[in-house]
Amino acid sequence: MAAVVGVYLGNTSASLAIHKAGRTDIIANDAGDRVTPALVAYSGKDKAIGLPAKQGLIRNSKNTMARACKIIGLRFSDDTVHQEVQDSGCKIVDKDGKPFYEVQLNEKPTLFSPKEVIKMIFEKLLEISQANGGNDIEEAVITAPLHFSNEQKTEIREAAEDAGFDVLRVISQPAAAALAYDIGQNDRNSLRRVLVYRLGGTTLDVTVLVVNGGMYRVIATESDTALGGRKFDELLAHHLAAEFQRQWKLDVRSNNRAMAKLRASAENCKHILSSRDTATCAIESLCEGIDMNTKVSRARFESLCWSLFQQSLSSIDRVLSTANISRNNIDQVVLVGGSTRIPKIKQLVQEYFAEKEVCQTIDPDSVLAYGAAIQASLLQGREEQINDDIEAECTSKAISVMLEEAEARLCPIIPKHSPIPLRKTHNFTTSVDNQETVCLSVYEEDDDMANNAGKTLVAKVVLEDIPPMAKGQAEIIGTFHIRRDGSLHIHLMEKTSEKSADINIDCCT
Question: Which GO MF term does the entry hold, naming one (predicted)?
Fold first, then answer.
C-alpha cells in the first residue's frame, strides 16, 4: 500500500509527515530542514518557493508573496486583509472584491490570488513528499485553522488538489495536535479535557477539546493575532537597533532594508537562545558601511518579551473561563508551534498547569503534520479497529439574526462550536400594526455575543403577505438547519396563513 502524508501549511511555514510501512515520520525538504517557509517569490521570470524565497526576501520583498493562508477565501474589505495590506512587503490589490498579490513578472505587473500562491507551495510539498516516499504518493490529510469557514477549507482543499494531492480530509489543527499524541484513542470509555497551546509565526491559538469515545470536540478557543513568533523577532530587532544607535549614533529604525536585516538576525538569535544562553548578532554593512556585532543573552531576550509571555497566559485564562472549567480540570496540554521552543514559555505553561502532563516530545513545528499523517493512515484503512472519524464537525462561527423592522438588536441563534448537523427553531413576530412583510438579516460572528461589532452579513430572508393584525400577534416560526457540509437552510413561516420563505446558504460556517 502506498505511503500517505500529513500536511501542515500555516501563515509562515509548512511541514510534512509521512506514514509508511506502519510508522509515521516527519520528513525534511531538499535543504534538510523539517520546516519549509511558506513563501513564493519572482525575480524576473524566475520563481522561488520556500527557503530560496526567504533568502532573497530582504532584497526582493516587493515580489515575495507571504502569509497567503491568512487571507485565502476572504473579501478585500475584511479587516484581516486590510491589516495584511499594511504589513505585506508585496503589494496586495483589490480585484472584483477579493485580494490579489501584485508582483513584477518579466517586468510586467502580474496578479496572483492567495489560492494560486498556496497551490505553488503545495506543488513544492508534493515534490518533497514524493522524494521521500515515492512517486506514487498522492493521498494526504491537510490541517486548517479552527476559525476557517467552509469556503476557506474548500479553497485550501482545491489548491492542494490542483497541485496534485488527493485530499482525503481537511481536519482542524487542534484535532491534529491531539491525534499526534494519540490522546483518547486507546481508552475510548474515558473522557479527557485537553488544552492545545499553539504559538505560531503570527498568531496564538489556545483551544480546549473534550475527548470522548475517541472523538474530539472543541468547546472553547481563544485567538490573539497580535502575538506570535514575528512579534518576538520585532521586539528583539528594535532592541538591536537601539544598541546600534547607542554604539554608532545612527538610528536605523526608519531604514527598511536595515530593519529587514535586523529582523532576520533577530529570528536567528531567537532560535539559538532556545538552546544556548547567548547568541551573536553579526550583520555586515548594516548602515553606511558599518557592521554590527553584538551579543544577546537569554535573560535579556526574556526581559524584552516578558509582557508577551504574560499576554499568552491571559489567553489561557480567557479560554478556560469561556469553557467554564478550571485549570485543574485539564488532563493534558499539547504545545504546538516553533515559538513553544522558547524555554520561558515552556516553563510558564508547565507552572500554570502544575502537575499536568505537557506534551512536547514531537517537534512542535511538525506536530500538526504528524497528527494529519496518522489521520491519513486511518482513512486509508491501515488500522481498521480504529474509527476513522476522530473529529466532531462543529460550526466555526456563531450565527445571529436581526429583524430589520424591529430594534437593531442581534438575536443569537447558533453558538460558535456547535456540533453539526443541527436544527434549531426560533419564534419571531411583527413590530408594528398590520405589518405585511418582515426581513430577517443573517449574520456570522466570530464571538457568541450578540452585538453589532465583528459581524458579517451573509444573507437576508424576506417573508411577505403576512395577514393584517396587531403588532406582536403574528407568530413567525424560523427554522435553522445546518447540514454536515456547513450549508445553512432557513425556513420562515407565519403560522396562521402558512405563508413561508426559504433560503439556502452554501458553506455558511
Answer: ATP-dependent protein folding chaperone
Spatial neighbors of 99 by CB under 8 A, at least 6 apart, are 71, 74, 75, 76, 81, 84, 85, 92, 93, 113, 114
Instruction: Categorize the per-residue pLDDT at 47 as very low, low, confident or very high, splitting at 50, 70 and 90.
Output: very high
Residues in CB range of 376: below 8 A, 6 or more apart: 4, 5, 6, 19, 139, 140, 141, 168, 169
pTM: 0.83
3-state class of 308 per DSSP? helix
Candidates 452, 183, 433, 432; CA nearest to 441 is 452
CA distances, 319 to each of 204, 313, 324 (Å):
12, 10, 8
Cα distances from 96 to residues 67, 113, 117, 376, in angstroms, run: 21, 11, 18, 37
Q: What is the dihedral of CA 153, 159, 160, 164, to 10 degrees?
A: 150
Residue with cell 457540509: 485
The alpha carbon torsion through 375, 342, 360, 220 (nearest 10 deg) reads -60
CA atoms within 13 A on the CB side of 5: 32
pLDDT at 447: 60
Give 15's Cβ-side CA count (13 Å radius). Answer: 24
Tell me: pLDDT of 383 over 60.
no
What is the distance between the alpha carbons of residues 424 and 167, in angstroms, rounded to a whole number? Answer: 32
Query: What is the rounded CA–CA span in Å between residue 35 and residue 14?
Result: 6
**Residue holding cell 517537534?**
363
**Residue 170 neighbours by CB under 8 Å, 6+ apart:** 141, 142, 143, 144, 153, 156, 157
| 73: alpha, beta or left? (left if phi > 0; alpha if psi -120 to 50) | left
